[in-house]
Amino acid sequence: MEVLCNGLNxxxxxxxxxxxxxxxxxxxxxxxxxxxGAPAGNAACGIxxxxxxxHFLGYLGDNTLSQIGKTELERHGVRTDKMIHRTDxxxxxxxxxxxxxxxxxxxxxxxxxxxxxxxxxxxxxxIDTRLVIVxxxxxxxxxxxxxxxxxxxxxxxxxxxxAPIEVMKEMVALATYPILPLSGAQTLSEQRDIEDCALAIDxxxxxxxxxxxxxxxxxxxxxxxxxxxxxxxxDVVDTxxxxxxxxxxxxxxxxxxxxxxxxxxxxxxxxxxVATVFGGRTKFPTREFMESNLAQLTNI
Length: 300
Ligand SMILES: Nc1ncnc2c1ncn2[C@@H]1O[C@H](COP(=O)(O)OP(=O)(O)OP(=O)(O)O)[C@@H](O)[C@H]1O
Ligand SMILES: [Mg+2]
Hints:
- The chain has one domain (3-8, 38-59, 115-296): Ribokinase (UDP-N-acetylmuramoyl-L-alanine:D-glutamate ligase, 3-Layer(aba) Sandwich), CATH 3.40.1190.20.
- With 300 residues, it is an alpha/beta fold.
- It has ten helices and 14 strands.
- The radius of gyration is 18 Å and the shape is globular.
- The protein has helices at residues 39-49, 64-74, 123-127, 139-151, 165-174, 182-189, 194-202, 242-255, 260-274, 287-292; strands spanning 3-6, 10-16, 32-37, 54-56, 59-60, 84-85, 92-98, 104-109, 131-135, 155-159, 177-181, 210-212, 218-222, 225-229.
- The chain starts with a strand and ends in an 8-residue tail after the last helix.
- The mean pLDDT is 95.
- Helix content is 34%, strand content 22%.
- Bound molecules: adenosine-5'-triphosphate and magnesium ion.
- Magnesium ion is lined by residues 39, 159, 161, 181, 243-244.
- Residues 35-286 form the Carbohydrate kinase PfkB domain.
- Keywords: Kinase, Plasmid, Transferase.
- Pfam families: PfkB.
- GO terms for molecular function: kinase activity.
């Protein structure tokens, strides 16, 4: 096994919402689509699209949402055969409204979603894998997975969006590559500026801290030095899943043996392509696409 992924599993209903919709009325939308979503699920799909064998963990039940969640992972080649059957379990569900500027408004429900329990984790799976990628939502089991990854000297990638501060601290300390959006980094570090956040969080972990800030790019700390990566300019349709796409390609680049600076560039280019289509999991660049465009992958 190459990669093991665990975290929140969500089915998204994405709607391109016209301006000034009448409250209580009916409005035709150009696009309404159903697809799998959430940081871990999207990252798993992106990693698979880049040619890596990846297993997604978690529960699946006997219901429509579970069927959609499973199909949506498998559509991108993610392996679901390690997912555990639990009759009443289902993915969370979100209604994502995207306006003409690409701005998102999200309604979600986690009723019926159960995070995997640490007792469900098979330690041998971590021993057999090269890299573990988790989000900061299913915190008990994901902290356990990060501990096991550390114990067995495996690479771990953490998408730490938000969690109680003590949990964030523990997970960031455990991960090889803790990656945070700026908002999460500000909460954790009590700093405002992205570079101050990065330097403060660097002191909390032996891992390599990466902070992303949407269109403003990303920053990492390697050997105490700041590395900056700009975002690629593209015609943005929908930024849903950009962060997840960045994590996917960053992870792939690390597996391919690239440096942190190269991995940030790779992640940034991949995420920008995802912003040009509606939906965070609609279409991913392939490894071939990335390689044939490597010429323009210079640190900018
Ligand atoms: N509008 C954009 N244009 C080009 N690249 C973008 C854009 N938005 C994000 N990116 C790229 O994706 C990376 C991650 O984005 P961001 O910081 O928004 O992640 P996030 O907050 O985790 O997003 P998500 O909502 O997907 O979880 C950025 O560092 C940048 O490289
Ligand atoms: Mg994110």
